[in-house]
Amino acid sequence: MEITVLHPRSGKTLATLTNISTGSSISDVKREYEKKFPKYYPTRQAFKSDPKGKTLKDDVRLTSIDFTKPGTLYFKDLGPQVGWTTVFLTEYSGPLIAYLIFYARPAIIYGAAASQPRSWVVNLAAACFSFHYVKRLLETVFVHRFSNATMPIMNIFKNSTYYWGFAAFISYYINHPLYTLPTYGNTQVYSALAGFIFGELGNFSIHMAFRSLRPPGTKERRIPRATSNPFTTMFNFVSCPNYTYEVVSWISFSVMTQCFPALLFTTCGFYQMAVWALGKHRNYKKEFKDYPRNRKSIVPFLL
Are 238 and 297 spatial neighbours (Cβ–Cβ below 8 Å)? Predict the structure, then answer.
């Protein structure tokens, strides 16, 4: 079987692949394309059967493709790629470092004013913030199983700017010598701390549940369901309870510290997670005919 590879916009012929059988998959096509153009490693390649269609998955067989033109595929260069693990480790180590610079070395940032005694809430906030990102780092190494091996390398700069920048913004205000206790004192702090711990435990529980759904080295997808862990009961209400618990954690942190930059970070984070959750929710419903119809995406009963 012969496959002609075209540019999606100009229609120019980029390559003709001849070492392809009728039983080959898109993954095989990518390997053959790499032989002709070594700089385009498989994770950098994307193929479509129609210039305006969806990207074909690696396991799609050529015999199952509805070609716009017989034996013709359209190639897109996804650009240089970087591994998800590398991206996550970079994203999550940065905020930890940025926050702790303000906390551990306040004299560098605030000068002589840093000699004033700091509130105990400042120490608690540093502990909670550090716990969250250390947890993220450990989950990246030991828990997460990624469906995609890589992502565009430019995303690492965009994502890192977001996480690192907000960490410095939040830390500057919480560790500032003029920072004052929340309005309702210990009641507000301890109540919000309980909410933060609840959100972190819930988030971790969901990540462990997701891990059990995907066998090592596969891209298998299953319908996520509640397990014996009570935190996973949230699966009965939303498709992405990991995001739900994440939002709970950051709302609680914002209330505990009564810090506007933290609330702003929470709001931006909720918006982005809602976009992701809605997309994943739609995909679940398309992929699984028996997917629970009563579930929402991220906010029980609402969104």
Answer: yes
